[in-house]
Write a structure and sequence with these properties.
By secondary structure, the chain is an alpha+beta fold. It is built from 5 helices and 16 strands. The strands form 2 sheets. An 8-stranded mixed sheet has the order 2-3-4-1-13-16-15-14. Strands 6-7-8-5-9-12-11-10 form an 8-stranded mixed sheet.
């Protein structure tokens, strides 16, 4: 068994309408599923991805209307990367961010790659990372109707960054349980802090990495809007997911057991520093209940929630995504 890379990242927003505007109109990603949080159907769950909603390209958001500010700290997923095709694309995005008044830090180096660190309207900590020299997991395909340049468009998720105080137990889970190996490091931008460690799985590359930042100068993060809820890793199918459950149980790591999310099967657990990990299957996918040409236009509910549709819709503020442009 070996994980194939990042499957999706799920974060928190306080306003679905503003979130939809930023990620579709400014970043040019496609809303591939407008549904609800299956554990709390009073809130939207929005999925942004490449044109087909391929695994490894999904950045998702739970709408928690009363979410307060995030106070960054340890025991957190402190950074989410989005892949672009090459270094030239980064120059395009600097110009676009300036045009739309998006807060960013310009083009810089992160190890051997060029990146742009930037923030959405709720201070979500984001990075565009160049695939110029990527030889690992291939990226997806930008949406052909994107409001941004298709040539320079976002092609998937890059590395997630974990910020922790004690790396030893987290690294043990990554390497001894989850099949990651350390493949490098790069300097921290914070004076006096250790280098950030790079861990890779599967085919490797930008779509299959976790970066571990050790900080001894921060308190525990207080999450809110603009924070990340969990990161999910790719598993081939349900049969393999059962094997992962057995591995976690044998290692005495408490876990959720298999959870049917309809669009994929999931398994959740927390690593020793309290960060929530998910293992998720590559399929069935988002075209299971919607035509590929009309993904995200209507409120999609899995079959086990369909009989509650009227009650669920009554609790949601309507979000117009018809045309999804």
């Amino acid at each position: 068994m070996q994980l194939k890379g990042i499957h999706h990242v799920s974060a928190i927003t306080a306003n679905a309408k503003e979130n939809y505007h930023f990620y579709t109109e400014i970043l040019g990603m496609r809303l591939v599923k407008k549904t609800v949080n299956q554990d709390d159907t009073s809130m939207y769950h929005l999925f942004y991805a490449d044109e087909a909603g391929n695994p490894g390209t999904d950045l998702t958001f739970f709408e928690i209307k009363n979410a307060g500010n995030t106070y960054p700290g340890i025991s957190s997923i402190s950074g989410t990367s989005l892949r672009v095709p090459n270094d030239k694309a980064l120059s395009y995005w600097v110009d676009r961010f300036n045009q739309y008044h998006v807060e960013h830090e310009g083009i810089s180096n992160q190890g051997e790659r060029n990146v742009i660190h930037f923030y959405d309207h709720e201070k979500q900590r984001l990075t565009l990372i160049s695939d110029e020299h990527n030889n690992g997991v291939p990226g997806g395909r930008p949406w052909s109707q994107s409001s941004a340049s298709v040539e320079h468009g976002i092609i998937g998720l890059g590395p997630s960054k974990l910020t922790i105080k004690d790396p030893t137990p987290t690294v043990k889970v990554l390497t001894e349980i989850l099949t990651f190996t350390q493949v490098g490091s790069y300097p921290s931008t914070v004076k006096g802090q250790e280098d950030i460690l790079i861990f890779s799985t599967g085919e490797g590359g930008t779509g299959a990495e976790i970066h571990v930042e050790v900080r001894d100068d921060l308190a525990r993060e207080r999450p809110g809007r603009g924070s990340v809820h969990h990161v999910a890793f790719r598993v081939t199918n349900e049969a393999e997911l059962f094997k992962w459950k057995a591995r976690l149980t044998e290692a005495r790591i408490p876990n959720s057991g298999l959870v049917d999310r309809y669009y994929f099967q999931s398994l959740y657990f927390r690593e020793p520093n309290g960060i929530l990990f998910e293992l998720a299957t590559d399929g069935p996918g988002f075209a299971t209940d919607e035509d590929i040409n009309h993904l995200g236009e209507s409120l999609a509910l899995p079959p086990f929630l369909e009989d509650q549709r009227e009650e669920i819709e009554a609790k949601l503020v309507p979000l117009d995504t018809i045309g999804n442009k």
